[in-house]
Structure formats: structure tokens, C-alpha cells
Amino acid sequence: MPTEPPTEPILRINTEMHTAPILRIGVDAANKYLVTGSHDKTVKVWDIRDLSSVKLIQTLRVPIGLGDEGKIYAVAISPDGKTIVCGGWSAEDSIYIFDRQTRKIVKRIAGLLDVISHLAYSKDGGFLAATLGGTNGIRIYETNNYTQTASDSEYDDGSFGADFDKEGRLVTSSNDGYIRLYDSDFKLIKKEKSQGGNKPFSVRFSPDGSQIAVGFADTSKVDILSGADLSYQYSPDTSGANNNLGRVSFSPDGKYLYAGGKTIANGQHFIRKWLDSGRGQYKDLSASNSTIMQIISLKNGGIVFGSQDPAFGIFDSNDTPIVFKQSDIADYRGIENAPQISEEFQISQDAKTIRFWYEPRGNSPKVFSLKDRELLDVSDLKDDLLKPIFKSEKLNITYWLNNDYPKLNGTPLKLKQYEVSRSLAILPNDSGFLLGTEWYLRFFDTNGKEKWNASSPGVVWNVNVSPDGKIAVAAFIDGTIRWYRVSDGKELLAFFPLNDTERNKWVLWTPTGYYDASVGGDELIGWHVNRGKDKEADFYSVSKFSHIYYRPDIVSKVLDTLDEDEAIRQANAEANRKPKAIPIMEMLPPKVRIISPADGAKTTSTEVTIDYELQTPADAPVTSLMLLVNGVSQPCEDNVNKTSNKYEIKTTIQRKDSEIRLIAINKNAASVPAVVMLNWQGIVKRGGFVELKPNLYILAVGIDNYTIYPQLSYSVEDADKFVKVMEKQEGKLYKKVEVNLILDKDATRDRIKSGLKWIKEEATNKDVSILMFSGHGSNDDDFIYHYIPVAGDREDLTDSAIPQALITTTLYTTLGKRILFMDTCNSGNVVGGARGYGDNLTGFINALNAAENGVILFASSKRNQASLESGAWRNGAFTKAVLEGLNGEAKLNNDGLVTVDSLNHYTADRVKELTNKKQATIFDKPARMDDIPIAVSP
């Protein structure tokens, strides 16, 4: 196997939470940071200082390859929280050492002979222990330079547990059945055969070092041994445990013992907590849906655990669950030995509509229409869908559900050792069948001979096949649903629906990376770029390359052509586009890192100096920088020579905790933001301190009487009424309100461009800017959105319309808080009572958000929806709702304050009410931006 990782970018799912089992976790001594390592080949760093709001702050990426290369089995964080180590499956059996602040790999330890199973720091952070798979034992490293200082290779099987006591002694467990105790110089002082089981899994010292708890992989028993000589002391009561309790931990004061693993009660894996260090009574804490993989006690009482769901959770000292973070992927599992749930994985005749579910056992079902690019409730489905076929007179397939010995007409089918069959679909004409397993999607002919197999991203929970036998559709453990060509197993298309609280984000993509997505869906996949075996990898969401790879037209044609290359050819021909599949490596954005202040640094000064490091491809110098404080754009020096070097920038923060976000932009795209949080420690309020009111600048454009495009009725009134409502805010929320209102015949391309220049030049970082566009919008053949001026021409958008790039650039470069209202149509046609002429705003909205630039967006309608207007309202539905909200219907409380969040909530509900649910609004605000006031109601 090559020792250098692949140089070609690898397309991967990207969600906040892990998408594959968590095997290990770690916590620093101050309990500021939690780290989680996963089979999804990432390490994630979570801020747990405020348990009411646990946040992801970093995703660390090691070099990866295909298959298992890069899977994380072990992770740990140094007691001081400055260093994170991880390892697992890699070509050279490596441990990667990251600087937490910079996210850089500062060293790689290679040649450990087998996978890294567990990592543990000594209490003082001076040493790191690594346990290995196979018969390779353990390695000990001094952390001042991470050189090996000790080892023990006399192990007869893999080791999965290690722990240091406060004196520096080390205890380990191994599947060879032995517990080993080492002194602080790492000399073996005792090796004892375990009594509780044959495979001791985890070991943990009591806080005073007098006891050692042992959990086992092959039994529910837990043993307590002497910390002096490993002699058996006692075993806690494990009655009622139906599987192992292999992961153990003592509370910080030693009074309580915790253990969890595979044991289940009432469908939930629980953690058992005993009084009196395990001698006393117990209670069971319902924890997760899958195996508990590690338990760590927190300094103030309580525990944090990681599980294979993937999930992690925190119980406080009163055993109350206060945090539970689970995966954002859909779970397509059915019921053990109950194929009727798999029957609910249904498809249409052309395989372009699929029925799936977000939660196990068929719960929270949904339908996705590839034609309409829409997620539907099952009750909204108009046509019947087709169930997978499990039974056939000609093909009698048995033992296919959750078994490793499926049979065809009584004859065993050939699978790999330990490979388990999970799903089945027989072709409608009995010409063969598809078998989904732990590792593959396999196609067999009528004689049981395998014709092809497709490597899968994990367990194939469900499979179905189109009535013509040409397209297979399969649902996988990683939350994806994929389409395959039955003739040879070639993957055609993939779909990923995000399982968050809203359940409205999704992305579709082809094997080479052409994609379509919902609003925000283009952040769900991206390109992992290895930079060599000794460096951390980079990751870029597909949004960075949307100008090339955002191709809804190609996605639409793949299932018709059954060939991606042919779909590309046809789509390019129809749109008169020349093929331009530029390699990702030739379109990379810059990289920016904040060197200081450190993340979480305390400050008592409102003046902050930011030292940062900038890198960019040689042919793509940085053209501008964006600096945001709590989502508000700030002045930013950008006239320095921007090459790979170090710079500084000064800014001002308010007297509160502040997020600093720095973004670099080159000709290709905007960088991934560099982010640090500053903890305000100074005076919050002082006598006589008065916060100055901002100015409000409004650019509002409304057009009814188009020269070429169809006429509208109320776009002018929408813009005019909006301005009148906001002008009343002068002297209230705003010091003054400045307006540039452009209506009908005055709304020429040049006049609108002049208005955009005006708002950019007028606003300061203390002000609020609002852009409001009402009228027609249209996409060109490259899916670039344009706002249509009064004389705009669909046949010449380049020279007659306002392109999305001009709007987004204006918003990027305007200082202060920026809000955009878009009341233009997303539909493909103009119909009675609707405005718009062209395609949808999705690409524009995603492009607007790609730089994470702090713009707040209100849009009138979603994809394939018209922005409705009515003579009864004398407005569009969207603007009517906005005006009502600003006039007080959206106020938070008796003080009359209307914020962007409250306005969104009111507008979303009101537009659905006005349009009988035919129209739904879009709202987007940067995740860490504060809710800001926009008006005070009369």
C-alpha cells in the first residue's frame, strides 16, 4: 500500500456531528473542551464550558484514502487543552499530533505496527500512552517532543484500555486476558490474569490510585482490583445487565463508579452508576441508542460519554441528562427480523421519487421528488409507489435479513467471512436480485452467480429496483440514498437529506461532483484535500466551486441517460455551454489562520489586535479580506502585499463576549473563515455610558411596468410601503434613516448599480443597511441569478440585468449589519397572481452565504414556488407579512421591539396563512450572530 495519501480530492459528507460511530472521546482537565473521534475520519472539538449551549468549534482532518484509511479509533486531549492526539487505521500506523489552536499537525508518529486502539495522557500531561492492535502492546512517549521513552510488546492480543494515576503509574488491559500495571518509570511491576472475563476492555484508576476498575468485552461483569498489586477486591452488582458493561469510570471524589457498553434496557443502552465506589446500590441512566464506547468523569461531578450512534451526552452530578448530541444523518434501519419496515422503502416507476424515513423503524417518513426537487409529506403523495420485491416463485431467497448465510433456492450465496446480509430486492422479471450487506451492494443472477458488487459507504439497510430493472436505489448507514445502474453496478447519483430539527436541507450529487442542493444544502458535502502524510488535510464545501459544479441540469438528466458523461454532454448542448470541468486543485480558495488572540482568550480592552497567517495559490493572490465581529462587517485593511506571510489587523469589539471571524478572498472563492471567541472580562456598563444609535441606509427597488418582461401589479407598492414604514424609525431605533428608492421607469440597470455603490459608500461599521428588491428575477444558462431592471432582456441578461455577483459583492463589502429582502419569483413561469420570470433563488442564496459573511436574508418563496400577490392585499404576500410584522405584529413583548428573528417567525407563519400554504419564505442568519432589532413598532 502506498505510504503517501491520495492527491486527488475526495468528495465527502460534511455535517456538524459525526456521521459514523464514535469510538473514543477526551476532555481536558479544566473541562473546557470535549474531543470526539470517529470512523467518519474526523476529530471534532466541542466547547463544553457552557453546557446549555455546547458548540462545535473545530473539525480536525487527518490524511485519508479509500476504504478504512483515515478512520479514527482513538483520540485524547492534553490536560492543558493545547494538544490533541488521534490515531486509528493508516498506512503507516500513525499517531497525529495537532495543535488545537492552529489546527495544524505539528508531528506524526509513524510505524506503530498496527492500528492505534486507545490513547491516554498522564495527569500532568508529561506522557502519552498508546495501545495497539494485534500483538504489538503499548508505546509511551514523552510529550515535550513526543519521542518514545518506553514500550512493552509482550502482548498476545490487542490492547484497548490504558489509564494513568496521579503518581504517573500506568495500567493497561488486553484481549489476551491480562491486566498489566507499570510504575512511573514504566517498568512492569504486575501482570495478572483477569477473573471477571477473558477480554478486559477498559481500565480506570480511582482518584487516589488505590483501586482499578475493569470492564470486559465478553461479559457483563465489572471487577475492582487493588491499585497496588492487581489483587481482586470485589465486583459491583451487575444483575439485569444483558450484555457487557465494558467501559468504566470513577467519579472525581471516588464515591461513585460508572459503567456502560452494549447492555440494553427498554431499547436504550444505559450507564450504570453505583454508590460506594461500586459496593453500594445502583441506578441505571438511559443514555443512547447504541453501544457506549467511553465514559469520562467531569471535575464538578457528572459524566460525559461517547457512543456508536454516533452520539455523545453529558449527565450532571444529579444524574440529569443535560446534553445529548446525536448524528444529523437519517437512520434507515428497520426492525430486527421484520422485513415489513423495509417494504416502506419505496420508489416510483422511474425511480425519481423515493419514500424514506429519518428515524429508525420507519419513523418520521418523507418523500423526495427528484423531478420537483422537493421534500414532501407522505400524505401529499399523489401516486402510489412501489415496494421492493422479497418473494418470487422462481427465486426463493431465504435468511437474507440480518444473517451471514443467505440462500437462493436452498443454496448458500457466497459472501465474505463475517459479511452480514441486510436487504433484498428481486428484479420484477425475476432476472436477478440485489442483496445489500454490511460492506457491499451485490447483484446476483438467477443461478446465484454474482455479476457485480459495488463497494458501499457502510451497511446497505434498504434496496429497491425500478420496474424496468434498469435502476437500483439503496439506502446506506451514512444517511445517503444512492442510485445505481443495474447492468454493471455503476453509481449514478447520491442524495443526502439532513436530519436536523428543520429537515429541509438536502443535496444531490453525481460521482464526479456535479450537484444540486436546497438552500444551505451545498454545505453538506465537500472536497477533502490531502496535503501529504505529515500535514493536516484541507476541506472545502462544494459551495466554493459552485460556478463550475452547481449543475441542476446535469443532475436532472443522469437517471434518464443512465450515464453521467452523456448527461453532461446533453446538458451542455442544451444550455450552449462549453465543457469546463476544471480540476478542484486549480480552483482553491485562500487559507487564513488567526495566530493570536487565542480562541477563548480573556480581554478587558475593546481594542483588539489580530495576528493572522495567510496562504493562497501562486496564481490566485488574495484580492480582499473580510472581518466580522459578532457577524457585523468591520473596516479591514486590504492594501498590503498578500502572499504567504503573517499580518496583523486591528479592530474594536463591544463590551461583551465576541466572535472574531476573518475571511480571505481570491479569484476562486472565499476562504473557510478563521474564527476565535474572546471572553470579555472588563466592565460591562459604566456610569454615563450611552450606546449611540446607528444610522439606517435603505436601497429599495420595485418594478411593475417592464419593457419586455410581463407586467406586475404591486412590486412598486411593496417597495414604497416598505420604505415608508422604515422611515418612521428615524429617531426611534435609528439616529437617521437615509433612503434611495428606485421605482419603475427609474429602475434602469445603471441607476440600480449606482444605488448599490451608494449604500456601500455611505454605511459605516456602526450602521445598518437594508437592500430590498421587488420584481422579476431570472437565472441564465449558467444558473447565475439576475435581478431584472425595467428594460431587462432575458436574451441578454449579461448586459441588461443585475447579476448576483454584483449584489453579493456589495453586501460583502458594505460595513455594519446588512439585511437583504428579496421578493422575486422562484417559479419557472409567470402565472396569474404571481410575479417572477425565470428559475429559482437557491443558487444565489447559497452563493450569498458561501463566505459566511454575516448577511441576514429574507426571501419570499422557495424553489418551484411563485411569489404570490393579490388585489385584496395590494401587495405581494411576502411584503404584506413583512409590513404587518414591522408595524407590531412581530414584536417580542410590550416594549414593541421587532427583531430579525421575531420578524422571521411571524412572516413565515403569515405567508403560509395568506397563500393557503402555497408559498413558504426563506430566512437565513449566520449561526452565531446575535438576534438584532430591526424596528420598534408604533
Itemize the secondary structure elements and their pairings:
Blueprint: E1 10-13, E2 22-27, E3 33-38, E4 42-47, E5 55-61, E6 72-77, E7 83-88, E8 95-99, E9 105-109, E10 116-121, E11 127-132, E12 138-142, E13 147-152, E14 161-164, E15 170-173, E16 178-182, E17 188-193, E18 200-205, E19 211-216, E20 222-226, E21 232-234, E22 247-250, E23 257-265, E24 268-274, E25 282-288, E26 292-297, E27 303-307, E28 311-315, E29 321-326, E30 346-347, E31 353-359, E32 363-369, E33 374-376, E34 397-398, E35 407-408, E36 411-412, E37 421-426, E38 433-437, E39 440-444, E40 450-455, E41 460-465, E42 471-476, E43 481-485, E44 491-497, E45 506-509, E46 515-517, E47 525-529, E48 538-541, H1 546-549, H2 552-561, H3 564-575, E49 591-596, E50 601-603, E51 607-615, E52 624-629, E53 632-634, E54 645-652, E55 658-665, E56 674-680, E57 696-702, H4 715-727, E58 737-743, H5 749-762, E59 768-775, E60 777-779, E61 785-787, H6 797-800, E62 802-803, H7 804-813, E63 817-824, E64 834-835, H8 842-849, E65 855-859, E66 867-870, E67 875-876, H9 877-889, E68 897-899, H10 900-914, E69 922-924, E70 933-936
Integer average pLDDT = 92
Calculate Rg over CA atoms.
30 Å
The secondary-structure class comes to mainly beta
Question: Largest beta sheet, briefly?
Answer: 6 strands, antiparallel
Level-2 CATH architecture of the largest domain: 7 Propeller
Q: What percent of the residues sit in helical stretches (DSSP H or I)?
A: 10-25%
CATH homologous superfamily label of the largest domain:
YVTN repeat-like/Quinoprotein amine dehydrogenase
The tally of beta strands, per DSSP, is 70
Question: Count of helical segments?
Answer: 10
Strand content is 35-45%
Poorly predicted regions are 826-838
> What sort of overall outline do the alpha carbons produce when their principal axes are compared?
globular
Describe the oligomeric state of these chains in a short phrase: single chain
Q: Number of folding domains?
A: 4
